[in-house]
Structure formats: structure tokens, C-alpha cells
Design brief:
Blueprint lengths: L8 H6 L8 E6 L4 E7 L3 H18 L4 H17 L1 H12 L3 H24 L5 E5 L2 E9 L2 E5 L5 H14 L3 E5 L6 H11 L7 E3 L4 H9 L3 E7 L2 H11 L5 E5 L4 E5 L5 H12 L10 E7 L3 H13 L19 H16 L3 E4 L14 E4 L6 H4 L6 E7 L2 H9 L3 E2 L1 E5 L3 H10 L4 E4 L14 E2 L2 E2 L4 H7 L1 E9 L3
Parallel strand pairs: 5-6, 5-8, 6-7, 8-9, 10-11, 10-16, 11-14, 13-14, 16-17
Antiparallel strand pairs: 1-2, 3-4, 4-20, 9-19, 12-13, 15-18
Helix pairs in contact: 2-8, 3-5, 4-5, 4-7, 5-6, 6-16, 10-11
């Protein structure tokens, strides 16, 4: 990554010397080499950021939707214009192929553009006489300071998902990216300093201690977190002390339900591509494939061949389908899941090993002969590992799909209209795709059920999450 990207006022402010105390390291997972060292914000620095956001809120809340939209559109244009730099930072720090990172930048800019438009059409409701002698109206108002905590797998995209609706609704923001992947977020915050009024967007860097200080601050009125279930529970518990709102997106264990009437070769190819996107470090990745008995052997053969053709390699190599895992710790975690599955009697049909090269690479892995209550089926691996199960009936398929704690996303692959209607109704997941997987639309809400959390990102619903509604009643004259 060009060293020119590691420059600027925010980089300088948060930069730390190697080996210091209370320091986080951003690595290049393709080489395991450090990219940069950053200070973790102290609770006092978090308080300063919140105070700045609270001060700016007094003015920002009175901007019109059109004024906020204009600034969001300017941010989108600048992000897109600097897309190559952002993609380079994202690829180097996360380990995803550069070509895919570059595609994400255009999508991220569209999130900003959509929320700019949504800001201007969102409304609070109606006005009218509901009690004799009085007129009632409702107002949609911003919450105040919101705290945003983003994950390491899609750092810039998740920042846009949270930041854009918060600003569109009239809130000010304190944003904390993952300590593992802060580079693209720092770049964006530097860019935003040229567009947004001072104090509207504030950046703090650090680990869980920094995040806890943000969650616990009494002036923060909403915390939006994307992370794992254990972290989400801690955030919800800490937020209850000040009764602040909480929005949680906590991962998934997405099933792909494949029926015998589906075009099996095409389905196998698409599920292989989406199952290992971003090295499987995606909460919506189809990591549990459940196949109708009559199609099982044919599908497994086609799927394993498609997976074996995927290339795990250098993010700068255009032939690479996916890159490394984010860290040595994450690779060891994935290895542990696979080893325990083997010990429990599962069959590793493809992969199951480290890639022999520098960095934290792991092979695309396909596992069969698993039971519904096996750890590998029930727990989120968050790596390039997919299980395949088989069932004999629609009822069993539905029960198996819903038989996990997570409820973020699922897909159904069939040409049967009646089955489609039943499964879209009865699957307990926040997003259900039909004959496709991992397709996003900024106009549609995204969020999970069950242990996958609560609240919606994307669509106009995201602005609702960042707003409160006030009832105003006026005594009628005369």
C-alpha cells in the first residue's frame, strides 16, 4: 500500500510508535506484516469527542434535509473520486481482492446518495383534529449524539451503513472502527473534515475499552454495533444504565435451501462463489447448504468441484477469488472448528488446511456428514468453511433451516411457487433471497432476528432507527 495513504491530520493524531503501551496494530493479513500503529483512545478522549458532537448537534439539528442531503452527495462524489486509494487501503488492511474492494467503493458511495434522497422524503406522519378543540401533529426529530462501532470485515461499507442515515436524520456522530481495520475509515474521516461542519463526525480509535467508554457515556443517545453476540450482549447491558437506544447486527449462520427442481450446476456455482466471498468472513455468507435428498449426491459433486476451482491467493492477483483471514487468531479459530468437526465424525470433502505461504490464508473447505446439533452447524465459524446437509421433506428442510439461534439471512432455490410462498413466510430470517444469494439493495432494509440482533440498516427504515417522533397538540383558536 502506498505510504502516502498513511498520512494526514487524523493519521498523525492517532499514530503511535511500535511497541508502545495501549497501542493497536493494523496488519496486512496477506503478509502478516504491520501496516501502522495507532493509539487507543482513552475514556477522556472519548468524552472530548462526545462533547464536540454534542456541541455541533445544536447547529446540525437545525439544518434542513436539503442541506444535509447536499453534503452527503458531496461526500459520495469525493469518495468515488478517491476510490482507488480507498480500495487500496481496504484491500491491504482487510485482505480482500483489490478488484472486489474497488467494486465496494462504488456501492458505498451509493449508500450516501440513497440516504441523501431519503433525508428529503422521510416524514413523521399526519396532522389533524383527533380531540375536539385541538389539532395534533407529529414531528420527526434527531436523537442527538450517536455512537457507531463498526466491524473488521467490511469496515468502510459498515461505516456508510451506519453513518449515512445517522447524519441524514440530523444526528452527530462518534465513530469507532475495529482496531484491526481502521485505515479506510480514517481516510474517510479525513475526507469528511473537508465537507462536514466541525464536530458533526468525530473519530476515535481503539479496542473494546474504547468502545465501552463510548457505550457508557451518558450523552450518547444511541449505539449501533456490528459484531459478535457476546459483544452485543455486553453493549445492550451497558447501554441500559442510561436507557440509550441500541441497534445490534450480530452475525448469522445463513442457510441455502436447495431443492431438486433447481438447476443444480448453476446453483452450485453461485453458492460456491458467495459462500467464500471475503474468505467467508461475511455474516450473510451461505455457510449452511441444505439439500433435498433426491439432489444431494449430484449437488455435492457439482459444489465441491466449483469450490475446488476457487483460487485463494494474493489480494493483488486478479485471479484470486478470496484472500486471507483477518488475523492469526481468526485462522486458529477456524482451524479449531474444522479439527473438532473431524473429531466428531464429519467428512472434509475439500480443503481443511492452511495455505503454505506467508500471511493468514486458509483453504476453501467443504464439510459433509454433520448432524444438526454439531458445533460446526450451530456456531458461526466466520471463515471459508461450508457444511452440506440433506433432508427428505419440506418440513424437515424448514425445521433444519430455522434450527439455529441466528436469523440474519437465508436463500431458497426452487422453481415451485407454492413452496416459495411457504418458505418466505416461515423462514425466521430478516432477509430471504429466492434463487440468488447476497444481493443487496439500498432501498430495502437489512437486519436480523433472534441472536442476529435487532434494528434495521439500509432503506428509509434506517433513518427511523436514528430518529424519534414527537407529538405536538395545539389548542384550537375560537
Amino acid at each position: 500500500m502506498p505510504t502516502a495513504l498513511l498520512a494526514g491530520p487524523l493519521f498523525d493524531h492517532w499514530h503511535a510508535a511500535p511497541g508502545g503501551s495501549n497501542v493497536s496494530v493494523a496488519h496486512n493479513p496477506a503478509t502478516s506484516e504491520p501496516l501502522a500503529f495507532f493509539r487507543n483512545a482513552t475514556p477522556e478522549e472519548v468524552a472530548v469527542a462526545v462533547d464536540k458532537a454534542a456541541t455541533a448537534f445544536g447547529t446540525w439539528r437545525r439544518t434542513t434535509p436539503a442541506e444535509r442531503a447536499e453534503l452527503l452527495l458531496s461526500l459520495a462524489d469525493r469518495l468515488e473520486a478517491a476510490g482507488e486509494d480507498f480500495a487500496r487501503a481496504e484491500s491491504a488492511n482487510v485482505g480482500k481482492p483489490f478488484a472486489l474492494a474497488r467494486e465496494e467503493i462504488a456501492y458505498d458511495a451509493d449508500v450516501l446518495r440513497f440516504m441523501a434522497g431519503a433525508a428529503r422524503i422521510s416524514h413523521a406522519g399526519a396532522a389533524g383534529e383527533y380531540v375536539n378543540g385541538s389539532t395534533s401533529m407529529t414531528r420527526r426529530e434527531p436523537l442527538g449524539v450517536v455512537g457507531l462501532i463498526t466491524p473488521w470485515n467490511y469496515p468502510l461499507m459498515e461505516a456508510m451503513w451506519k453513518l449515512a442515515p445517522a447524519l441524514a436524520a440530523g444526528n452527530t456522530v462518534v465513530l469507532k472502527p475495529s482496531e484491526l481495520t481502521p485505515l479506510s475509515t480514517i481516510l474517510f474521516a479525513q475526507l469528511a473534515q473537508e465537507v462536514l461542519p466541525d464536530g458533526v463526525l468525530n473519530l476515535v480509535l481503539g479496542d473494546g475499552t474504547t468502545g465501552a467508554a463510548l457505550v457508557e457515556h451518558p450523552a450518547v443517545r444511541l449505539v449501533s454495533l456490528t459484531g459478535d453476540v457476546s459483544t452485543g450482549k455486553k453493549v445492550a447491558a451497558a447501554a441500559s444504565a442510561t436507557l440509550k437506544r441500541v441497534h445490534l447486527e450480530l452475525g448469522g449462520k445463513a442457510p441455502a435451501l436447495v431443492f431438486a427442481d433447481a438447476p443444480l450446476q448453476a446453483v452450485a456455482t453461485e453458492l460456491a462463489a458467495t459462500g467464500f466471498l471475503n474468505a467467508g468472513q461475511d455474516c450473510t455468507a451461505p455457510c449452511r447448504v441444505i439439500v433435498e435428498e433426491a439432489a444431494y449426491e449430484s449437488f455435492v459433486e457439482a459444489y465441491c468441484k466449483a469450490v475446488a476451482d476457487l483460487r485463494c491467493g494474493d489480494p493483488d492477483d486478479e485471479s484470486s477469488h478470496f484472500g486471507p483471514l483477518i488475523s492469526q487468531r481468526q485462522r486458529e479459530r477456524v482451524e479449531g472448528f474444522v479439527a473438532r468437526a473431524r473429531s466428531a465424525g464429519a467428512s472434509v470433502r475439500v480443503g481443511g488446511n492452511r495455505v503454505d505461504r506467508p500471511g493468514w490464508f486458509y483453504e476453501a473447505t467443504v464439510i459433509t456428514d454433520v448432524r444438526q446439533d454439531d458445533e460446526i452447524v450451530q456456531s458461526e465459524v466466520f471463515g471459508p468453511v461450508v457444511t452440506i446437509q440433506h433432508v427428505g421433506s419440506d418440513d424437515e428442510m424448514l425445521a433444519m433451516a430455522n434450527g439455529v439461534d441466528y436469523g440474519l439471512a437465508a436463500s431458497v432455490w426452487t422453481t415451485d411457487v407454492a413452496r416459495t410462498l411457504r418458505f418466505t413466510r416461515d423462514l425466521a430470517f430478516g432477509t430471504v433471497w429466492l434463487n440468488q444469494h447476497l444481493v443487496l439493495a439500498n432501498e430495502m432494509p437489512f437486519g436480523g432476528f433472534g441472536q442476529s440482533g435487532y434494528g434495521k440498516e439500509l432503506s428509509a427504515h434506517a433513518i427511523d432507527e436514528d430518529s424519534q417522533v414527537k407529538h405536538v397538540m395545539l389548542k384550537a383558536a375560537g
